Amino acid sequence: MMVHNTMVDGLGPGHATGVVASGLSKRFGDQVALNEVDLTVPAGSMLALLGPNGAGKTTAVRILTTLLRPDAGAASVGGFDLTQPDRVRAVIGLTGQDTSVDGLLTGRENLIMIGRLRGLRLSAARSRAGELLEQFDLVGVAERVVKTYSGGLRRRLDLAASVVSTPAVLFLDEPTTGLDPRAREEMWKVIRRLMGRGTAVLLTTQYLEEADGLADRIAVIDEGRIIAEGSPEELKQQVGTERAQLTFATGEELEAARSLLDSPDLIVSEETRRLEMSLDGPWEFKAILDRLHQAGITPGGLRVVEPTLNDVFFSLTGSPRQDVEVVRP
Amino acid sequence: MTLEITATRRSFPGSAWVLIGRSMRHILRTPDALILSVVLPVAILLMFVYVFGGAIATGSEYVNYVVPGIILLTAGFGSALTATSVTADLTEGFIDRLRSMPVPSSAAVAGHVVASMARNLLVTAVVFGVAMAIGFRPVANLWQWLGVIGVIAFFVLAITWISVILGLLAKTVDAANGFAFFLVFLPYVSSAFVPTDTLPPFLRAIAENQPVTPIVETARGLLLGTPIGGHAVRALVWCAALLIIAVPVSAYLFRRRTAA
């Protein structure tokens, strides 16, 4: 049977379904990599799988892209069960830490090669490569050998290679790691356009901000288990909100502010003369400043700190994790 | 524009055809490797002919004696590059890229094997040319030349598959490079550079029972009219045996290395 996956109008069987996974488990030796993971990504939407290094994000992606067989559990990807790997492979795209384009070929040659491997005739593969080079703003470097590309260019080509045939499900395994902000923004533009055509996207990331800005839903993964799932708003409510950070010039002022603002989640650092507390919206920040003003205490420095992945884990697991990166994109 | 993409698995020959093209491009994009695989055997040829040759009694012009051996050295060196190509594909994510598509990923290995054949035959022709320029005088007729080319191609194919095994075993490209190095040394303990009856008994036993000696003697006989005797049959049996073992072992190792 020939199943056709049509490019723009999304008539392929996969477009209606995205990803439905239940009970996925995988262990390597005595190390549990995934433990009973359930995931759903509806067509045209994005799920962000958020977690620190080693949480199981890449294992989940490798299983759902047929590169790794789960020990237990089942999943349907793009309308096909994982037990039919060739069917799944025909309707997915993967851009990840583990896949790559050919460094010795030019950008154009890579895209033509992928098109031909996907079953396009040479002429069709050529015109598709031309389209993608334009769409991904790679025309200027199309005839350069890929090993001379910058990280951003390479990622963009990698993504273009994953969408040579418009995928029903696109997997992005930390696609913006090592990209500068401009390259990252470019990349997201392209991904949003694909989602507009009905592609379901599963993104893995270590950055809450990234998941927040793009994903319809976020699943937080830690030690192989999904520990929270919801819309970015729901999740942030669980995590807590922004925190106010106030710095004082003298120890006396810090002491005075501490007794004035006394609240259960107040964190005081004597060394840096800094005081930190959670904020319930912007007006609470104003209320704090008003009280300090009335008491005649002037803070030397003011900052509002966004919740970080570290805070997510702190709030969800009850213990701060030292190994979580708190780098912002 | 609408592209129709079939959701069924791509055929092996179709995928291999595309990936052979890829590996052929690699040859052109790594001219340093291509030049090295010509320069190294030529340097060894010149060294043996002009430095050691005068002291080695072979009963004929030493350049005539040594060229068939140099040709096999060239083939061994060139085939070793296949090991690093295979390891690079596995470790740098290219095979995983193929595995995420409905493509038989082992076709990438087929691409490297065919490219190795092409590269080695090209390099061998160049080394033959240099040998002629410094006084190599074969007496072969057309059929004997075809026989020489056939024997060398068979040897290259067998060594390339051994190289594939080494590439599949190595965890890093550097390790693959190191593993493959012994292929380069195989010709030294054979009749490639010196008659085996000049070797001490232990080395002589190795030299007379390893594949390079019968292959060198066969090539030498075809090119220069020296007696071939049983060497031709032994050469063919060696190459066939290496292939019959190496291809299934490669297939097994590839499946294991890429097991889901």
Structure, explained:
Chain A has two domains: 13-237, Rossmann fold; 243-305, Alpha-Beta Plaits (2-Layer Sandwich). Chain A has eleven helices and 14 strands. Chain A has helices at residues 57-64, 85-90, 107-117, 122-135, 151-162, 181-196, 208-214, 232-239, 251-261, 282-294, 309-317, and strands at 19-28, 31-41, 46-50, 72-77, 80-81, 92-95, 169-173, 200-205, 217-222, 225-230, 243-247, 267-269, 274-278, 301-305. Mean pLDDT of chain A is 84; it is low at 1-15 and 321-329. Chain B has one domain. The chains are: A alpha/beta (329), B mainly alpha (260). The interface between A and B is large, with 48 and 33 residues.
Total helical segments of chain B? 10
Q: Widest sheet of chain A: strand order?
A: 6-7-8-3-9-10
Q: What order do the SSEs of chain A take from the amino end to the carboxyl end, as H and E?
A: EEEHEEHEHHHEHEHEEHEHEEHEH
Mass-distribution shape of chain A: elongated
Number of strands of chain B: 0
Name the CATH class of the largest domain in chain A.
Answer: Alpha Beta
* Helix/strand order of chain B: HHHHHHHHHH
**Beginning-to-end CA distance, first to last residue of chain B:** 35 Å
Structural class of chain B: mainly alpha
Keywords:
heterodimer; A: 329 residues; alpha/beta; Rossmann fold; Alpha-Beta Plaits; 6-stranded mixed sheet; 4-stranded antiparallel sheet; elongated; disordered C terminus; B: 260 residues; mainly alpha; 10 helices; 0% strand; disordered N terminus
